[in-house]
Amino acid sequence: MAKPLIVNVVELLRWPGSKKEVSANIDVADFEFADARIIDTPIAIDLRLESLSTSIEVVGTATLSWAGDCRRCLAPVTSDLVVDFDEMYQREIIDPDAYAIENDQINLLPMVRENILLAIPIGPLCREDCPGFCPHCGLDLSVSTCDCDNSVSDPRWAGLESLKGILPDESV
Ligand SMILES: [Zn+2]
Ligand SMILES: [Zn+2]
């Protein structure tokens, strides 16, 4: 259990407007992500808690590294990611998106975990204009060019193309 992410908020709740900073480097293992994309290097957490009398607002960032495969050419992609947070903890949950304050404590870990998983790109690109593979010969177009004519539509669809106008649009 990542102790630095469990914060006693008795004092904060007592003094609306009061703030508390939480900064920690947390081992990836503590999050139990079960997600191979997240690189096993400590995640830097920087959060600011602010008391709003019955709730606590948490804003800040988590900085981590992730790895994946380019969705076009399958080359390995690694990148750093800064995830922004702006979340609410409440004693009595009024906002359905809020997290619970339990026994005068808040556990930041599940909130950080959730936001990180949502922020990792699902279909990353090795670079914005990655050309991927040639649809005809399968050559990696980032490495070299082929003689295939990629300007015409894929021949597999040419037959369908000629049916356009004959069949109703939905079936094409
Ligand atoms: Zn690529
Ligand atoms: Zn080709």
Report on this model:
This protein is α+β, with helices and mostly antiparallel strands and 172 residues long. The protein folds into two domains: 3-119, no CATH class; 131-166, no CATH class. Helices cover 15% and strands 33% of the residues. The chain has three helices and seven strands, in the order βαββββββαα. The strands form two sheets. The chain has a five-stranded mixed sheet with strand order 2-3-4-5-6. A hairpin with a 6-residue loop joins strand 4 and strand 5. The relative contact order is 0.16. Bound molecules: zinc ion (2 copies). One zinc ion (ZN) binds at residues 134, 136-137, 139, 146, 148.
- From the alpha carbons, calculate the radius of gyration and give it in angstroms: 24 Å
**Average pLDDT across residues?**
89
Helix segment tally: 3
What structural category do the secondary elements indicate?
alpha+beta
What are the low-pLDDT stretches, counting only 5+ consecutive residues below 50? Answer: none
H/E series, N to C? EHEEEEEEHH
Range of helix content: 10-25%
Beta-strand content: 25-35%
Provide the domain count: 2
Give the oligomeric state of the chains in this entry, treating copies of one chain as homo and distinct chains as hetero: single chain
> What is the spatial order of strands in the main beta sheet?
2-3-4-5-6
**What is the number of E strands?**
7
Q: Report the span from N to C terminus.
A: 54 Å
Pfam families: YceD
